[in-house]
């Protein structure tokens, strides 16, 4: 049983590539690297082909998390068929994803911070504007741990069918 996750933010240079790199590391640590594939995309097209933002690279470097080869791309309507789960980093992203992809297709769409209801925050703040990459890393790290539990549940549920 394979499972696939796509993180989506606005530019695909700050939040969603951070989440992609962090989840990939956590999947490896949990022995799930071969079962789950991870990618990220932006709703906007300004940064297509760009490496993650220097603030995202700095914090990933700090935790020795690889972002090798990662380049920004734009969300594509085909993504709805390619992924089991699309995770929007904020509520604007979620709205844009739903508008662009519609409701057909096999994938499920969730908002990242719905995984951490105890935080009482709806949106992962955009560090492109706030500059606060540490705050984003903390949310991303905690949310990805929850996402691993969620994915385990999905995989187990599906494999029992
Ligand atoms: P991200 O942040 O959505 O977390 O990648 C942004 C990056 C770039 C822009 C906006 C947000 N921009 O307007 O170029």
From TrEMBL:
<dbReference type="GO" id="GO:0004725">
    <property type="term" value="F:protein tyrosine phosphatase activity"/>
</dbReference>
<dbReference type="InterPro" id="IPR023485">
    <property type="entry name" value="Ptyr_pPase"/>
</dbReference>
<keyword id="KW-0904">Protein phosphatase</keyword>
<protein>
    <recommendedName>
        <fullName>protein-tyrosine-phosphatase</fullName>
        <ecNumber>3.1.3.48</ecNumber>
    </recommendedName>
</protein>
<comment type="similarity">
    <text>Belongs to the low molecular weight phosphotyrosine protein phosphatase family.</text>
</comment>
<dbReference type="InterPro" id="IPR017867">
    <property type="entry name" value="Tyr_phospatase_low_mol_wt"/>
</dbReference>
<dbReference type="Pfam" id="PF01451">
    <property type="entry name" value="LMWPc"/>
</dbReference>
<feature type="active site">
    <location>
        <position position="15"/>
    </location>
</feature>
<feature type="active site" description="Nucleophile">
    <location>
        <position position="9"/>
    </location>
</feature>
<feature type="domain" description="Phosphotyrosine protein phosphatase I">
    <location>
        <begin position="3"/>
        <end position="150"/>
    </location>
</feature>
<dbReference type="InterPro" id="IPR036196">
    <property type="entry name" value="Ptyr_pPase_sf"/>
</dbReference>
<keyword id="KW-0378">Hydrolase</keyword>
<feature type="active site" description="Proton donor">
    <location>
        <position position="126"/>
    </location>
</feature>
<dbReference type="InterPro" id="IPR050438">
    <property type="entry name" value="LMW_PTPase"/>
</dbReference>
């Amino acid at each position: 049983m394979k499972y696939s996750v796509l993180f989506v933010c606005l530019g695909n240079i700050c939040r969603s590539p951070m989440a992609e790199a962090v989840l990939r590391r956590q999947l490896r640590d949990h022995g799930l690297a071969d079962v789950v594939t991870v990618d990220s995309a932006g709703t906007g097209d300004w940064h297509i082909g760009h490496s993650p933002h220097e603030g995202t690279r700095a914090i990933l470097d700090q935790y020795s998390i690889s972002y090798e080869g990662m380049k920004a791309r734009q969300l594509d309507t085909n993504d709805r068929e390619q992924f089991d789960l699309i995770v929007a980093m904020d509520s604007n992203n979620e709205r844009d994803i739903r508008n662009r992809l519609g409701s057909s297709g096999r994938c499920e769409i969730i908002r990242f911070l719905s995984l951490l209801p105890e935080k009482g925050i709806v949106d992962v703040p955009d560090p492109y504007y706030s500059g606060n990459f540490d705050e984003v890393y903390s949310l991303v790290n905690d949310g990805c741990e929850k996402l691993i539990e969620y994915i385990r549940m999905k995989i187990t549920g599906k494999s029992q069918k």
